[in-house]
Amino acid sequence: MSATFLFDMFMIIAFPIMGRAMGQSDMAYGLWTGTAVNDTSSVVAAGFSYSDAAGDFATMVKLTRSLSIISVVLIFRLIHHRLEVKKWDMNMLKRNLC
């Protein structure tokens, strides 16, 4: 068994208990679970074991986080491309000056 699997199992069991002990609302628990739990299937399991509303909200939060990776990767790719173009331009300028 991997450490990730063990931590996911722990979170599925412990998060609903901790959420109830802290008196979290469905939305607060869903937000907490959607951001703190790593695996999407574990988020769904931990969210719906608290309540249907918490499960729905936790799933939305997790999927939003997962989909935002696309925009972050595209932004960093654009930044990297611009830096490479500047680097290439500087090399061409140095060659022309020599």
UniProtKB/TrEMBL annotation:
Its main location: membrane. One of its GO terms (cellular component) is plasma membrane. It is found in: Cell membrane. Pfam families: Cons_hypoth698. It is a multi-pass membrane protein. InterPro entries: UPF0324_pro. Signal peptide: none annotated. The keyword Transit peptide does not apply. Belongs to the UPF0324 family. This is Uncharacterized protein. The lineage of its organism: Bacteria, Bacillati, Bacillota, Tissierellia, Tissierellales.
